[in-house]
Amino acid sequence: MTEPPARRLLLVHAHPDDESINNGATMAKYAAEGAHVTLVTCTLGEEGEVIPDGLAHLAADREDSLGPWRVGELTAAMKELGVTDHRFLGGPGRYRDSGMMGTEQNHRPGAFWSAALDEAAAHLVEVIREVRPQVLITYDPDGGYGHPDHIQAHRVAMRAADLAAEPAFRRDLGQAHAIAKIYWNRVPRSVVEERFRHMARELPHSPFTTPAAVTDVPGVTDDERITTEIDGRPFTAAKAAAMRAHATQITVAEPLFVLSNDLAQPLFEVEYYELVRGETSPEGARGPSAIRENDLFAGLERVTDVAEVTAL
Ligand SMILES: [Zn+2]
């Protein structure tokens, strides 16, 4: 038996493409450093709008074959990021994309939004107890921007983290495991505002015409709440390539991209997080944001060693 990599990172996302937009550089960085990176995607993104005219027939209101197509896009994206462990919650197609808030798709059979929380969380508990990650990344309670599947992904991830650590819960799903650090995806408001000011100069040199609004960026929050920033600049090309692999959903023209609404957004080379469980460990951090951590695993090395020794 081979030893599992010491650093294990789990990400929980709603649809294929969210991982690359939010965490592409972080995933590529940790994969390149030899950490085990596990992505769990909760739906196939069946209700997404399709950008390329030639693929419009895949859409939910036509052939309804976008889900399987996006499995292929996600696979290609993971190849770009160097991530080999990607799974769908409960298996591919177990939960369906719920569409935007307030639509009838929210309540159709199998919609993720309608899923029983503990039942959905149990699928994730099984993954947590198998992979035994020290770090979990998911959305804030609003899902970043209020999409039902993003809100539900947040709830399932937080619930599963609690249940996985509970020895009495579903012993058939493996030995209890407590995740040491939990992060929510965030972007500091000052950074977003600065990037949008800069975009006025970038737009004329891009294929895009209309800027999005600062409020269109998911997870924007007060700077003080940001505990951690991951400098993904060496992995920007990988992040852009992964986003490009989701071609039905994203058009990339670095340093900008658009979703199906055709509104230009900046592609963030630094990715930001709010630690909500565990201790921050900013020692050793450098640069202008020295009070922030620059490693998701900061402060965990000793804890991990102790846990490994105890387990023997
Ligand atoms: Zn999404």
Compact overview of the structure:
This protein is 31% helix and 17% strand.
Descriptors:
single chain; 312 residues; 8-stranded mixed beta sheet; 4-stranded mixed beta sheet; 7 helices; 17% strand; disordered C terminus; binds zinc ion
Notes on the structure:
With 312 residues, this protein is of the alpha/beta class. Helices cover 31% and strands 17% of the residues. The chain has seven helices and twelve strands. The strands form two sheets. Strands 1, 2, 3, 4, 5, 7, 8 and 12 form an eight-stranded mixed beta sheet that branches. Helix 1 packs across helix 6, helix 2 packs antiparallel against helix 6 and helix 3 packs across helix 4. The protein is globular, with a radius of gyration of 19 Å. The two termini are 14 Å apart. The C terminus is likely disordered. The structure holds zinc ion (ZN). Zinc ion (ZN) binds next to loops.
The total of helices stands at: 7
Give the proportion of residues in helices.
25-40%
Question: Could you tell me how far the N terminus lies from the C terminus, measured between alpha carbons in angstroms?
Answer: 14 Å
Number of extended strands: 12
Approximate strand percentage: 15-25%
Please tell me how large the radius of gyration is. Answer: 19 Å
Low-confidence stretches: 303-312
N-to-C SSE series? EHEHEHEHEHEEEHEEEEH
* pLDDT averaged over residues: 93
- Shape assignment: globular
Molecules bound to protein: zinc ion
Assign the structural class, choosing from mainly alpha, mainly beta, alpha/beta, alpha+beta, or little secondary structure: alpha/beta
The largest pleated sheet is described as:
8 strands, mixed
Pfam family, one: PIG-L
Keywords: Hydrolase, Metal-binding, Zinc
Binding site for Zn(2+): 15, 18, 150
GO molecular function, one term: N-acetylglucosaminylinositol deacetylase activity
